[in-house]
Amino acid sequence: MNEFEVPKDRRPEAARLFNEMDVEETLNVLDKLDKAGQGDNTVTELIDQLTALRGRNLEKRDEAA
Length: 65
Hints:
Layout: H1 11-20, H2 23-35, H3 43-64
Helix pairs in contact: 1-3, 2-3
């Protein structure tokens, strides 16, 4: 598996995350990884970062409601 291949067991999760997030959110995550010197993260690590961001955004939305 190369570093950009999504493991088969994580593909449904990755697809859901990328469908639910807007472009701005995704770019912000990538920018943060790049600034932290982690631009070479694997897709699995990126999925984990996006999952954490999505969870925080949902919590903020719920608190605002």
